[in-house]
């Protein structure tokens, strides 16, 4: 199976290296096969970006959903796109903050060092970059310096995005900035609350006068404190991109990324003493470890190549390959469990160390065709992909000291020495996920839009646990279907329905036999709007189920079996309203009921940890477009969510909260300035910290940032 995938990818890529035989070629090479979009309606005011056309805060198309750029109104799937204009209008300072604009998405906590993922529709999602996975998502995962847009695909995405550890809830695809024909030079800095300093640059340089060589490089550095006493973070990234084209249908894009993040590891706080204060209280801002704990660090280095080629008016092809290496170095101190080891308030603190290195190679090749039969417009895609990850790591831990958390005096950190009684896990794993996909999109009379796909997917996992001298090999293939339809019942109003299945590898398992891949299936239906006066929206009902989930063996202690099941269902809504050139509004709401429906340890019916039942976001901006104050903008908004479970046992919940943000900005042709306030009411709230079985951390208090940008 894997050999077939590799051969298919090589064959398609090799074909693209030969000149096109047909004469119908365009001067500008598209990034992918495109379904035409009417951007000339009088009310549009459309801007064409390297990632697709946008109308202010509204993206009109998505290339992530099907790998073929398609109008969002025609897609039988809930897809939310955040253009850069919407992100900048709110003064977002991280990708995690930007993700809060999307319904049913819970972003990773910025206080976590690494190896954290967004939650989509109640289950773990995966952050891809330019359509390719990043296993563990190490390095500086939050910088916005190189982000053109963020596209969120809801539900299992294995039909086109099999790779990484967790693409079950959905895929958050970050689309990078690309070189353009017009030179531009931007420099900026954001500074303010918690001592934040974040300079960045964006240089777009057309190297040749005939536009055959284009270059762009972005970069950023961040130094900031946090709401945790003494917890500081430093990160940087550098993203050069080179585009070579013959302006006759062939384009080669080369990208590199160097990314680094470092901070002391923050394990969060136990629930007793924070959420439960009946017997004692823990200072919410306490850094729960030695103040001199060495910094943890995570690094990511990657090179990516993509080739696009148009053969003729019917056929085109594109292929991508990325090779990367990431390192994770985490000295830590932590406590086990939520309750004191010695009542009333004393916990046993452990010293720990996690060291891990991953190498990853991802490749995909795609052949796209477009042809019409009478009133039926057809788009086909044949795709082959493979993702290979080597994962080598070890976790060591030893008890350090008992600490009273009401008057803490943490022991000096001592790195644990590996040994038979101190090493928890020592892995040497290889994960290979691959597949062949055939996809058909058809539009009938410009009103009925069909999407069907079949994928032959394979999961191949080789796992070695050196501490127990155990190993397993999982190799399983399955045909995954997808079928959906969207019908434009009246102009600008579409109803849609979709069914898809997914496959997820189980890399860590302790059972009597090799684990099977987890299975997922999703049904969704909804309504999409693209109406006059700049109103667009998407409403969806969904039902997502996950089976073959590992759970504890009730007969053999310490072993696992695959009898667990989880289910998430709910309603979500995303909206953009731009009634005129002055006003813009963005809103989202989700009601998600994610539960354990079958488990040998967790009570059936328990809600999935970290997932609020209700959550939402609303933001509005007013811009002055003429007169002496032209360029002035004022915006404000709030976000809110209901309580979340901290652990899967549902014994502790972090209460719901709502916060208010605001921004005032002034934009001129060559410079801009903005003042942004977060959590203006200084509302105190708890969030779930993704550490061990779940911890808590205080949310960010009131912060104010000043942003300056110079453009040339």
Descriptive report:
The structure is a single chain. The chain has 712 residues and is mainly beta. It has one domain (2-711): Maltoporin, Chain A, CATH 2.40.170.20. It is built from three helices and 38 strands. The protein has a 22-stranded antiparallel beta barrel. A hairpin with a 3-residue loop joins strand 13 and strand 14 (196-206). The longest helix is centred in the N-terminal third of the chain and has 15 residues, at 2-16. It is globular and about 75 Å long. The protein starts with a helix and ends with a strand. Residues 1-43 have low confidence and may be disordered. It comes from Prosthecodimorpha hirschii. One of its GO terms (biological process) is siderophore transport. Pfam families: Plug, TonB_dep_Rec_b-barrel. InterPro entries: Beta-barrel_TonB, Beta-barrel_TonB_sf, Plug_dom, Plug_dom_sf, TonB-dep_rcpt-like, TonB_sidphr_rcpt. One of its GO terms (cellular component) is cell outer membrane.
Q: Secondary-structure map with pairings?
A:
Blueprint: H1 2-16, E1 47-49, E2 52-55, E3 58-59, E4 61-62, E5 70-71, E6 79-83, H2 84-89, H3 95-99, E7 105-106, E8 119-120, E9 123-124, E10 126-129, E11 147-154, E12 170-176, E13 184-192, E14 196-206, E15 213-225, E16 232-245, E17 250-263, E18 296-310, E19 315-335, E20 346-373, E21 376-404, E22 423-444, E23 448-465, E24 470-490, E25 493-504, E26 518-531, E27 535-552, E28 560-577, E29 583-598, E30 614-623, E31 632-641, E32 644-645, E33 653-654, E34 657-667, E35 671-678, E36 686-689, E37 695-698, E38 703-711
Parallel strand pairs: 10-12
Antiparallel strand pairs: 1-2, 2-3, 4-5, 6-11, 7-8, 8-9, 11-12, 13-14, 13-38, 14-15, 15-16, 16-17, 17-18, 18-19, 19-20, 20-21, 21-22, 22-23, 23-24, 24-25, 25-26, 26-27, 27-28, 28-29, 29-30, 30-31, 31-34, 32-33, 34-35, 35-38, 36-37
Membrane topology: Multi-pass membrane protein
Domain TonB-dependent receptor plug: 73-164
Protein name: TonB-dependent receptor
């Amino acid at each position: 199976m894997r050999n077939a995938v590799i051969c298919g990818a090589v064959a398609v890529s090799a074909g693209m290296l030969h000149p096109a035989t047909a004469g119908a070629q365009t001067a500008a090479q598209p990034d992918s096969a495109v379904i035409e979009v009417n951007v000339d309606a009088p009310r549009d005011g459309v801007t064409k970006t390297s990632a697709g056309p946008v109308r202010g805060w509204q993206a009109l198309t998505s290339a992530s959903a099907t790998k073929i750029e398609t109008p969002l109104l025609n897609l039988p799937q809930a897809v939310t796109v955040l253009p850069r204009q919407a992100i900048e209008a709110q003064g977002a300072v991280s990708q995690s903050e930007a993700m809060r604009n999307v319904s049913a998405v819970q972003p990773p906590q910025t206080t976590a060092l690494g190896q954290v993922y967004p939650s989509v529709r109640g289950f773990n999602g995966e952050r891809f970059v330019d359509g390719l996975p990043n296993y563990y998502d190490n390095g500086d995962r939050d910088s916005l310096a190189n982000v053109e847009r963020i596209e969120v695909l809801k539900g299992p995405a294995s039909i086109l995005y099999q790779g990484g550890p967790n693409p079950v809830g959905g895929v958050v695809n970050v689309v990078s900035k690309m070189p353009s024909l017009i030179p531009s030079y931007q420099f900026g800095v954001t500074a303010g609350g918690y001592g934040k300093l974040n300079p960045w640059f964006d240089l777009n340089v057309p190297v040749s006068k005939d536009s055959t060589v284009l270059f762009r490089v972005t970069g950023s550095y961040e130094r900031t404190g946090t709401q945790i006493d003494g917890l500081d973070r430093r990160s940087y990234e550098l993203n050069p991109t080179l585009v070579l084209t013959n302006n006759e249908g062939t384009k080669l894009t080369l990208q590199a990324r160097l990314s680094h993040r470092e901070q002391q590891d923050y394990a969060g706080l136990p629930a007793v003493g924070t959420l439960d204060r009946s017997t004692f209280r823990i200072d919410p801002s306490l850094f729960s470890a030695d103040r001199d704990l060495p910094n943890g660090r995570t690094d990511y280095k990657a090179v990516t190549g993509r080739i696009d080629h148009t053969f003729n008016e019917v056929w085109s092809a594109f292929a991508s390959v990325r090779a990367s290496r990431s390192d994770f170095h985490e000295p830590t101190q932590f406590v086990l469990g939520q309750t004191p080891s010695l009542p009333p308030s004393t916990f046993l603190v452990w010293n720990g160390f996690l060291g891990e290195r991953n190498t990853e190679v991802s490749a995909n090749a795609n052949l796209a065709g477009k042809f019409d039969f009478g009133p039926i417009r057809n788009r086909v895609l044949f795709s082959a992909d493979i993702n290979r990850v080597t994962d080598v790591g070890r976790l060591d831990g030893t008890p350090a000291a008992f600490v009273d958390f009401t008057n803490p005096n943490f022991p000096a950190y001592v790195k644990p020495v590996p040994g038979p009684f101190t090493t928890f896990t020592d892995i040497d794993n290889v994960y290979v996920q691959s597949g062949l996909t055939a996809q058909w999109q058809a539009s009938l009379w410009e009103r009925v839009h069909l999407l069907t796909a079949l994928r032959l997917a394979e999961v191949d996992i080789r796992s070695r646990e050196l501490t127990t001298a155990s190993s397993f090999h999982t190799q399983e293939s399955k045909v995954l279907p997808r079928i959906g339809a969207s019908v434009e019942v009246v102009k600008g109003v579409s109803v849609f329905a979709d069914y898809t299945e997914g496959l997820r590898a189980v890399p860590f398992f302790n059972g009597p036999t090799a684990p099977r891949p987890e299975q997922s299936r999703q049904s969704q239906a909804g309504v999409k709007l693209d109406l006059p006066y700049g109103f667009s929206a998407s409403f969806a009902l969904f039902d997502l189920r996950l089976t073959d989930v590992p759970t504890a063996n009730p007969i053999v202690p310490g072993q696992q079996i695959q009898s667990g099941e989880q289910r998430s269902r709910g309603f979500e809504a995303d909206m953009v309203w731009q009634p005129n050139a002055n006003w813009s509004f963005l809103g989202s709401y989700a009601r998600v009921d994610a539960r354990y429906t079958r488990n040998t340890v967790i009570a059936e019916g328990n809600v999935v940890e970290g997932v609020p039942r209700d959550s939402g976001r609303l933001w509005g901006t007013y811009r002055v477009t003429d007169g002496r104050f032209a360029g002035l903008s004022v915006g404000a908004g709030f976000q809110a969510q209901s309580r979340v479970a901290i652990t899967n046992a549902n014994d502790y919940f972090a209460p719901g909260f709502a916060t208010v943000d605001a921004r005032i900005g002034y934009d001129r042709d060559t410079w801009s300035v903005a003042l942004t306030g977060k959590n203006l009411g200084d509302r105190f709230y708890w969030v779930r910290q993704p550490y061990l079985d779940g911890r808590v951390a205080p949310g960010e208090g009131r912060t104010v940032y000043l942003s300056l940008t110079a453009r040339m």
